[in-house]
UniProtKB/TrEMBL annotation:
Keywords: Membrane, Transmembrane, Transmembrane helix. SMART domains: PlsC (SM00563). It comes from Brevibacterium sediminis. It comes from the Bacteria. The lineage of its organism: Bacteria, Bacillati, Actinomycetota, Actinomycetes, Micrococcales. The chain crosses the membrane at residues 321-343, 355-375, 381-399. Residues 32-74, 290-312 are annotated as: Disordered. Residues 32-72 have a biased composition (Low complexity). Residues 76-200 form the Phospholipid/glycerol acyltransferase domain. This is Phospholipid/glycerol acyltransferase domain-containing protein.
Length: 404
């Protein structure tokens, strides 16, 4: 269904950009049931009813048609943590390549940004005034998201609404819950999937980036409640599910310690089983998720806030010489790296450095790569050696033992 999927061009560009910058994005799937078998209803655990509570057979996300002639694909509402600016959408696409997103209209107004950013426009009241838009012509984000899901699409939403590199999520907005409840009221079987995004160092080239897919959210039945009360219960269930797969530490000190220990553990774990995200979640669970201070339990014989195996600070190993060797091997692409580095230095926060680098780096690629292609006709040996050296340097920067 072309109208319910991100275009092939955008999927290819996004995959190339995230792979060049981070390397292969690992997807850690913590869901215990296949897409076509959602969890049982919270109010009736013995009954195999869909998560939506609609009480009708579920359609697989890839099935050609629904049992009752509804959407050809079972719609999925993907709620994701928001850690690293606009680049977060690229990471979610590694796990859900056909997903569409609600995107701020300010990211869609320039032709260059539209080359690699696409989605359903979200127009805030201040955008109407800023861009001189006609309020009557602007559809609400909720209505736009509902229309996409009714067509059987995958819709990605960041409930925090804006990114922040902190120790816990920002307050969640209620839009995702409103969308889910509206679909359920319409009798549409929707699956709500929480997704956590993890970056070992968000602002460094070739650092680790992973996506964690959690278990589908069990949506509470309405049970005669008022709409607002029901939406609040659904929002609470979504928030709890998202917290379980996201960075959610009690404080900054614990976050820094867990961050360092998870990176060290991922470096030391042999083979393909090394996962920074899995290590982070395990260590985070040892100290407990972020909860109000008065509600956080204190272990016997341990003072509140005392040291544990996860919040004792550790310093991760660094390999500056090897990293410099890797960067020097990228000599042929120095103009791109320099342009990206300068752009990153102008970012207004750690959570936007990568986006600035990729934005300007992509522009530099559009100029420098054609120049290299032309140069290859005159100096094929030099250009060939530079390309080979660049590939080796890129691989060296991604070696598991030294990767930041």
């Amino acid at each position: 269904m072309s109208d319910a999927s991100l275009s092939l061009r955008h999927r290819i560009i996004n995959a190339a950009m995230r792979t060049v910058y981070f390397g292969r994005i690992r997807v850690l799937d913590l869901s215990s049931s296949p897409d076509s078998q959602p969890p049982k209803s919270a109010s009736s655990p013995a009954e195999a009813t869909p998560a939506s509570g609609a009480g009708r057979p579920a359609a697989s996300a890839d099935s050609p048609s629904a049992p009752d002639g509804g959407p050809a694909r079972r719609p999925r509402l993907i709620i994701a943590s928001h850690r690293n600016g606009a680049i977060d959408g690229h990471q979610v696409l590694a796990a859900f390549p056909h997903a569409q997103f609600l995107v701020s209209i300010q990211l869609l107004r320039h032709w260059f940004l539209r080359l690699f950013i696409a989605g359903i426009p979200v127009v805030r009241p201040k955008d109407v005034e800023r861009y001189g838009l006609d309020p009557a012509s602007v559809a609400s984000p909720v209505e736009a998201g509902l229309a996409h899901l009714r067509r059987g699409g995958d819709l990605g939403i960041f409930p925090e609404a804006s990114s922040d590199w902190g120790h816990r999520p920002q307050p969640y907005k209620s839009g995702a819950a409103r969308i889910a409840c509206a679909l359920i009221e319409d009798g549409i079987d929707v699956e709500v999937i929480p997704v956590g995004l993890f970056y070992s160092t968000p602002d460094r080239f070739r650092s680790r980036a992973e996506v964690v897919r959690g278990r589908a959210v069990t949506i509470p039945d309405r049970d005669g409640r008022e709409v607002k009360e029901w939406e609040a219960a659904v929002a609470s269930a979504m928030g709890a599910a998202l917290d379980d797969v996201s960075v959610n530490c009690p404080d900054e000190t614990t976050f820094a310690a867990v961050e360092a220990r998870a990176l060290d553990r991922a470096r030391r774990t042999p083979g393909a089983s090394a996962s920074y995200a899995q290590s982070f979640l395990e260590l985070q669970n040892e100290v407990g998720s972020a909860v109000p201070d008065g509600d956080r339990p204190t272990g016997a014989g341990q003072a509140d806030g005392g040291p544990t195996s996860a919040n004792v600070p550790t310093t991760p190993r660094t390999f500056p010489v090897i990293r410099w060797v890797g960067f020097l091997a990228l000599w042929l692409f120095a103009p791109i790296l320099v342009a990206a580095a300068v752009a990153g230095s102008r970012a207004d926060g750690r959570n936007t450095v990568t986006f600035f680098r990729i934005l300007v780096g992509f522009a530099a690629v559009m100029v420098w790569v054609p120049a290299l292609i032309i140069a290859a006709f005159f100096w094929p040996a030099v250009i060939g050696a530079g390309v080979l050296s660049g590939v080796l340097g890129w691989l060296l920067l991604g070696v598991r033992r030294i990767r930041p």
